[in-house]
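Async update (no meeting this week)

Hi team, since we skipped the sync, here's where things stand on the single-chain job. The sequence we agreed to prioritize is pasted below, unchanged from the tracker. I ran it this morning and attached the output directly underneath so nobody has to dig for it. Comments welcome in thread, and please keep replies under the output.
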Amino acid sequence: MPSPHASNRLSSETSPYLLQHAHNPVAWLPWGEEAFAKARRRGVPIFLSIGYSTCYWCHVMERESFEDETIARQLNDSFVPVKVDREERPDVDDLYMTATQLLSGRGGWPMSVFLEPSSLRPFFAGTYFPPEPRHGMPGFPQLLEAMSHAWRDRRGEVLEQASSVAEGIRQHMAAAEAPVALGLGQVASAAQTLLRQLDRVHGGFGSAPKFPQPAYLEFLLDVRDSAADDATRDAADTAIRVTLDRMGAGGLFDHAGGGFHRYSVDERWLVPHFEKMLYDNAQLAALYARAGRVYNDDWYRRVARRTLDYVLREMTTQEGAFASAQDAEVDGREGGNYLWNEAGVRAAVPPALADFAVKAYHLDRGPNFRDPHHPDAPPANILHLDARPERLAQSLGLSPAEFESKLAQVNAALYAARATRKQPRLDDKVITAWNGLMIAALARAGAALSEPRYLDAAERAAGFILSRLRGQSGLLRTYRAGQAKTPAFLEDYAFVIDALLSLTAAGRDHLAQAKDHADEARRLFGDPGAAGGPGGGGGGGYFDTRADQPDLFLRARSTHDGALPSGSSVMLQNLVALHDLTRDPRYLDDAIATLASLSAAVARSPTSTINAVRSLLALLAEGDAIAAQLAALGPAPPPPAAASPADFSPVEVYASTDRVAVGPGTPARLRLVVRIAPGHHITAADPGPGGQGLVPLRVHVVNGTGIAAYADYPQGEPYGPDADIRIHKGSLEFDVALESTGSWSGRPLLAVTFQACTDTECLEPQTVELAVAIDRAP
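Output:
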């Protein structure tokens, strides 16, 4: 609820996220020169808070801290508070997210960053902070007091820290790297890593929380199409199909209304984080449509159609463009709009279908969801299927067609009933890049599914973007409430060009517009350095932002493909596609120069640059001459670091003694030290509400009976997008007690089980047997 005091300076903004904070007692300013000048004039740091409108923990921190008058007064007195919508300013978000990860070892939103006002360099950063100390985190007021004291009393140290962090960010985001040779080795490495990381039971890559990662599956579809042997094709098919099957059947997919939620908190794709993002649904709809054509799979086609129909129904503006996201919560309860119980389902569907609905969605097994943030809420059900529809049909004695007909009727009834509930908030901001993704998805799916209505919707949206989101300096980033604003970034251009090329490939000719925008992107974002050619110093590619932006202390060039592919990798794909369509050699030359600028990152981690590896594969298919050019980009790179070899562990475990004696009434105690390599973490013994499916830290006895181990486990620290997983980093120590439980058998050994992860992937769980001799005490 808005506070009774006057609104702050965010009230004139168009971003739904900023407007959500317009009535906070915090004297928020939007990111810009006014805020910077005020901080410099007052001689105080900037407190920068970055989030987005559908972010659950952003809402929590607002309710707990930013609506609190006392905390607001503390913020206003000692800092200049600034709010940024990460979707409006991805450049600002990327810059300070890198700082947050460097300083805290994790990232997420809301992001809380303290900046020195002169050059806007960060000196401290974190994510969510509670209003009082909790779970090893300082209370937000205590943090504010500490940062204010540090700025006032130890300013030299603060500025030195800011300088060091800025250099670390530069090394991560802006350092030019000399090109290295590329070839099939990087393609093979990426494929092998993904197949090794595949969860062969539940699909997906790595452990919980699981994100859809459609770029990985698109790459494997490329690989299976070009595979020279049946074994590679079969392995790729297994990875693709088990993942698509499990995602489409699980709670990640909204069975009543269509479309996909953002990610799954468990390894089974059952319990989603309930927000829905335009970019996820665009990429997944295109992926399922392509897979439906490749495998001639009607169910994949239905998933694609239901996803696109959801977007056209619920995320399309009156002008035909596409809104950004739907919130995860209703009235402060995450997922409230999507949950059911058996009685509610029976009341919503026609009586003749009630028993079928209960069995199809497994409601007869009891609840499968409890709100981790509100333990007082009654348990409920997330709708899901245990298997593909044809298998469920067989188990219920129905034909596949009968099952699908009944399920469609059930879904329609449930959706109608759900529509009477209070709905999650819609972020109706139009983002150029994300609209480009959805236009491309509609074009590709329209062609694959022979659905002209999807092509028509894509054309209408493209017309809106090209006419309403252009200014004197080119494309603009966002549109809302009749106002387009913020000069576009590389990713906006890249995704719009991809959309225009996808429409062209589907028979709706926009090639001239695609070429014009490619030329404009090269002019605005291209690196003109002569060192950029093959054998040069890393230029020749693209920057994420325009030159000389006064509100950024460096000009980044991103290479990582995450939830969204990087702008550079999409531009690379566009250049390859433009060459295919026109055979104009300048596009091929630009593509090779762009790949050269990415080559060191590709060689270092092919899976982190998977979209660029897709273009590498396409270029290699051009023939031996192009392959020779790519091999001559530079020296041969070192082999990529193995992602998860069976004999590698970043974790070392040491015991305080090498011998103990245990007997009836004679327990033994020892201390364990666990050391974790930089860049890795392990799941805590109590993994937290978001840690379902992760393998927790455990001390136990193996190779015999008669001995039990009891550990005094440390609590761990919050981690993950919602800070609802607990982990350990660095090193930890804790005590273990060994007690006799009866007659001995075998030769008991003390063992420690853990699962090590980075921020992007998890290794296989490991059990380490300790070199501690356990003797029988009399």
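Quick observations from my side:
The longest strand covers residues 731-754.
The CA atoms of residues 542 and 568 lie 6 Å apart.
Reply here if anything looks off.
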